[in-house]
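Incident log entry.

Two folding requests arrived from the same account within the same minute. Monitoring flagged them as a possible duplicate submission, but the sequences differ. Recording both here for audit purposes.

Request one:
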Amino acid sequence: METYMYYSEEEDIYNDRYKGHFSKKLADWAISRMIKKSSDGKIESVKKRSIEDFDLFIKENNMKVPYESYYDAYYLWHMADADYRKALEDAKHIAAFIDETINDPDCVPTAVLACFKAKMNECGIPIYWEKFI
């Protein structure tokens, strides 16, 4: 399987500005694209939850989210609902997943966005970077 990653000047501008992390606009867009299987097996959109709810989740779970990784963590919080609901069945496990992902000692801090870009590339979904600058 061959992968073609297309780079643009707008992506370079985005990366210069956000240092390889999600911005609020990009996280919102990525979350809006998430789908999951409902309990009856139907495909449905993931319901976007508020920043205030996420801040409360962080506080209740005593999480330390680095400033630059805040929207990476917000994206992962939603991804846990979309992709890992069986494995991460409660807030404690979701918090641990987010923490271990954004603070992975053998990975670069920008891996969350890199994985998202790879997924979009593999699915043939373009990211119009100029919308997120």
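Request two (distinct sequence, not a duplicate):
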Amino acid sequence: MKTKKINLGDLIFILFYKFNGEIRGSTRLQKLIDIIRLDSELEVDVNYSPYDYGDFSQQTNDVVQVFIDNLWISKQELPLEENKKFNIFKLTEKGEKIAKTLYENLLSRELDYLKIIDKFLDKSQDDIMSFSYFWYPKTTIYSKIKNKVFNKSQILSLLNGELETEYNSIKETGKTVKEFIKESWKC
């Protein structure tokens, strides 16, 4: 059972604070909130539904737009590939003050609930997507990229032990999963 309710807007500010004022990618922000919603003691006042890239919340995009309109965050759009953009969101000076105040007023147990995000501070969006897809596969039923994500790392579900630890240990070798498994089969 969830022990603490948190407002979506407050959570977004707090995430920006934890990520040093910048979140690179709308999908990253969506996934971070979803991971907190699904895997912490915090009850987030947001609704998610399976969509093109896994779980999606229009509410999150709406709150971000309100933050942009109020000049609490800025948004920079970079071209990614044909007909796609990559958004970089940064806290403004006004937004930094709000985020810092909210973060500093969290109780120690609330900070503990948010520790799940610490493991993602230096991870790429692909890593966050893989984590989300592995741990919450039901959220990917309408995903346009699930075959790509699951094919890339399908073998990981067959590993023993904690999936994230196994996944990261393989990534640290600099080898593909296929190369790693092929070498491990050699006696």
